[in-house]
Amino acid sequence: MHTDLVAALDIGGTKIAGALVDGGGNIRLRARRPTPAQDDGETVMGAVAAVLAELSESPLWARASAIGIGSAGPVDASAGTVSPVNVPGWRDFPLVARVREATGGLPAELVGDGVAMTAAEHWQGAARGFGNALCMVVSTGVGGGLVLGGRLHTGPTGNAGHIGHISVDLDGDPCPCGGRGCVERIASGPNIARRALENGWRPGPDGDASAAAVARAARAGDPVASASYERAAQALAAGIAATATLVEIEIAVIGGGVAGAGEVLFAPLRRALRDYAALSFVRRLTVAPALTGTDAGLVGAAAAATAAATRTCVTPPVVAGGRA
């Protein structure tokens, strides 16, 4: 029997997606359920089990050799547990053990969602071919992951590269994480919109007050909307430059909904990076939009599981920790 596919889960506060992924990163089968995020932990696990059950009904399921799990965090890959901020019913929830139980004992690999996106971009996206990269998801929150020396660098618990909670403003607003002036508190979509509203920007007739609406206003020349994105870009540039200075990354890849603003974000980001990334060894740093899109979580989870099974240095990248 061929075992040439990998199962993947992408678990967030809005949706639980599942897939079977082949060795070329192509999704062969999909399943999806809404996340019952405000319900108890067993109800959430029931939705995960329903996704797995739908996948397992396909004849392709017999070809799956392992399962990768990308989850909103924090995660603890060493313990196989998750405590997503936006899923309060899961605190130290033994997700790896429960998924293995639901899949008949498939080897399982757990990574955070930012790390999964990084694995996807290194395997199939904008970071492909780079030995040292920072990949970021800038959306409702700001997450990320690192590739160092050609390998995904997750740290002992799977949270390395979580750039959203680097402080870039020592006297800045308190962040829900407990810090002050974090990248996320300035550059996430909700905070871009909040700042624009606080400074006098007003939504159009449709009432859309999202970061995407602020981006449209900035593109049309609204100075307050533009200033909010410029502030977000400055925070991202400071975090990226600090990371590059510390570990000498060659490329920073940015995905997530906020990256959909295009040059409204990327133009001021590149300008700000010229100011912050001033040392000779970080001046050549490239910034690029992510390429793997909404499938990044699934493709990255599959990459993590494949790499854990092979434990080689070739792409897809190696992921340490979390295997049950």
From TrEMBL:
Transmembrane feature ranges: none
PANTHER family per the UniProt record, alphabetical: N-ACETYLMANNOSAMINE KINASE, ROK (REPRESSOR, ORF, KINASE) FAMILY
Source taxon at top rank: Bacteria
The name this protein goes by in its record: ROK family protein
InterPro entries named among the record's database cross-references: ATPase_NBD, ROK, ROK_cs
Family the UniProt entry places it in: Belongs to the ROK (NagC/XylR) family.
Source organism: Streptomyces chengmaiensis
